[in-house]
């Protein structure tokens, strides 16, 4: 929102705050569009480096464009190629083992100090999120999930419609969050995840 003055804006942020940048980005987008987005990302990354803030880059390929197992990794590769090394990545949950292999490979190649990957939600159902959690089980670079709208979208809609009060919103969001934490922990406890973790070790 601060545009080219983002560095000045970040100076007012507490040091422990993480800067999040969402990119609706596909590695096969029109070159001019990609270059414009990447220039803006370089500006933001430089500002984060100057102020000491960690940078989280969220990559969401447009749904109307083709997606292969290496689509996310190719997008990440293009971002690394311009000299941007995010502290965190936030990605749609890859469901194919090959996609995770590509993601792990590109991070290990470019930034062994990367803090890791968080899974996003995009208002997905709990069943779909659970599927993504299971696919991520045992992936050493996957550190958790951040799925805001999947937690609060229904509750917010009820509140705005007047069918749900403040206490109801809190209860619904808390209940859903507990279920997602349970699904995450359940996925991490599977024999497959333990086997993958031992292999990485």
Q: Strands, helices and their partners?
A:
Layout lengths: L5 H5 L8 E5 L7 H21 L3 E5 L11 H11 L6 E4 L5 H14 L5 E4 L6 H11 L5 E4 L2 H14 L4 H23 L2 H10 L1
Parallel strand pairs: 1-2, 2-3, 3-4, 4-5
In DSSP terms, counting alpha (H) and pi (I) runs of 4 or more, how many helices?
Answer: 8
Backbone structural class: alpha/beta
What CATH first level of the largest domain would be assigned? Answer: Alpha Beta
Mean pLDDT, nearest integer? 92
Total number of β-strand segments?
A: 5
Q: Any idea what the radius of gyration is?
A: 18 Å
Rough shape? globular
Oligomer: single chain
Task: Write the H/E string, N to C.
Answer: HEHEHEHEHEHHH
What level of helicity do the residues show? 40-55%
Characterize the structure shown.
The protein is α/β, with parallel strands linked by helices. The protein has two domains: 1-120, TIM Barrel, CATH 3.20.20.70; 121-201. The protein is built from eight helices and five strands; from the N terminus they run αβαβαβαβαβααα. It has helices at 6-10, 31-51, 71-81, 97-110, 126-136, 148-161, 166-188, 191-200, and strands spanning 19-23, 55-59, 88-91, 116-119, 142-145. It has a five-stranded parallel sheet with strand order 1-2-3-4-5, covered by helices on one side. The longest helix has 23 residues, at 166-188. It starts with 5 loop residues before the first helix and ends with a helix. Mean pLDDT is 92; it is low at 194-201.
